[in-house]
Amino acid sequence: MNTVTPKVTGRAAALLTIAFVCLCITQANGQVDSPIRVVWWNNIPHSISENGTPHGFGIDVLHSVFEQMRIEQKNVQLVKADSFSEAYKLVLDGQADVGGIPILQRANREREIDFSFSALNTGYRVILRTGTKRKTSVLEILTGFELLRTLLISIVIVFTMANLIWLAERNREGSDFDSTYLKGVYEAFWWATVTVTTVGYGDRTPHRPIGRLLAIVWMVLGLFLVSFFIASITSAMTVNAIESNITSINDLKQLKIATLTNSAFSAYLDDRAVAYKGFAVNTEMYAALEDGTVDAVFYDANSVDYYSKWEAQGKSYVVGPIIQPTEQSFFFTDGHPLLDEFNLALLQIREDGRWQAIHDRYFRIKSDGQWR
Question: 138-242, which class in CATH?
Fold first, then answer.
């Protein structure tokens, strides 16, 4: 049986070459076989929905990265999810390609999905409804750092004066202060304490001129020392009366807290036995904060900072430092073929200033401390 091999003419070869080149150019310009499915959910300030079309820091950065990758908008399909949990599941199950909002990088998530390079620095933070105060006991006030520091300084000053009086009086015959150091300084410390508090029992007194001179100086200084100590107590109580006094995560146990359900934030509170009310999206948490359903929100630092400056209108304020600084990244289905190219494009927009311009649009603070 004879096999016939078709001949490829020069014209046909040229047409095939042109078609191949066009295909390569099309692919280089970001054309894809199927749309890239981007899932998003309501999340201030990463996705702010206006007329059904989202914008925000996360969405805008994502669009800029796709532009760098030469992927046209018509090849991007936005998929709306009702919550972070639903969005995460869509990516995990392969029903979406990428999460359009950066999320916290966590080891347990890395086992299931792939993270991009860091898109934003963040951490955990608390925003408190204006007028909310944590109940503080008198014992907490009296054992506070500032008051204990003041007490320690006062003891050191009294002890120093006790040593000076003992040195001045120890060798006098019939002295009220024993010549041995421990017993003598103890007696001098007693004298210095009762003198500075204006009790003045008179059971021990200095007799030498230098001792009496030191006593006069000590009586005058005592007026300032006692005034300083009383002022410190008053200040501590006054500050507690006008501030929330949230200094640690344990202070939240007395408040009604809101956070995101099935999130790194809820896991953090669970580990520390802090009760909370869970919400599907952060817009619901902030609404609960405004209407008084909850006292505080424990959530992403960038989100609560943005909300406090732009949305709260004085109804709430951020308290305390950032807890557990971390990173936020976009997330892909495991082994997604676009991840490497996405990371290169993300680095490029950070280097050429486009990322910074988007960041300033949502987070920039002027030199006077006010947000733009």
Answer: mainly alpha
